[in-house]
Amino acid sequence: MKADILAQLQADRAAKRPVARVTDLESGAESLVYLADTKEEISLPSDLIEAARRALEIDRSQPFETGGGRYFIHAHNPPLRLIIVGAVHIAQPLSRIAALAGYAVTVVDPRRAFASSARFAGVAVSRDWPDKALTALAPDSRTAVVTLTHDPKLDNPALAVALRSPAFYVGSLGSKRTHAKRCEGLAEMGVDAAAIARIHGPIGLSIGAASPAEIAVSIIAQITQVRRQGAQAAA
Description:
The chain has two domains: 3-76, no CATH class; 81-234, NAD(P)-binding Rossmann-like Domain (Rossmann fold), CATH 3.40.50.720. The protein has helices at 3-14, 46-58, 91-100, 130-137, 152-163, 176-188, 193-196, 212-229, and strands at 19-24, 30-34, 62-66, 69-76, 81-85, 104-108, 124-126, 143-147, 169-172, 199-200. It is 38% helix and 20% strand. It is elongated. The chain is an alpha/beta fold and 235 residues long.
C-alpha cells in the first residue's frame, strides 16, 4: 500500500468516514472511493465507482471486473454503533440483540438506579445527561440512536443532538399521541420540520410486539431495514 493511500485511510478512520480502497489487480494501482463525490476527479469507470459504493453500503469487500479490468474493492467502514437513551427494560434485550447484530452499544441514562453495570453487564454505560452524552459520542453515518425513556426532559435533548448529526437512524419509543407531543416539543426547541420527520416514531416495525424482547426485535429489525434498504423503506 502506498504511503499516501495509507495516510488518507488513517485520516478517514479517525474521522469515521466510510471509504473503499480499489486496487487494480493487474497494475497494482490504488484509488479511494467515497459515498459522495469528492473534489478530486476519480479516474475509474463509473460502474466500478458504483460497485465500490455498494460495497460500503453492504459492508462487504469483493472482487469486481469491468471493461477487461480486474479489481478488488476493500470496504473500510467505521464500526456500527447503537446509542440507547434510557436504561429501561426494553434496553436490556435490545442491547444484547444489537451486539449480536454487530453493533457497539452504549446505554445513556443519568439515573444511576437504571444505568447500573449489574443490569447492563458488558455494555458501555454513560450516566451523563443525554444531550451531553450524545454530543460527546458524536453519532456518525454508521450510528443508530434510540430513545426509550418516555420522558421529554431526557429524550428530547438527545433527539435534538441526534437530528443534527448524520446518524443513519433515529427512533423514539411511544404512542402516536406521545410522538405528536414530542414533535411539538422539538419544534419549540428550534428543530426544523425536516429534521423532526427523520424520527421513526412510534419506533420499530409493526409486528404486534408486546413484551420488551419482542419490542427490541421490532426495533433492531427496523434499524436493519433502514440500513439495508434506506429510510423510505421503513416509512
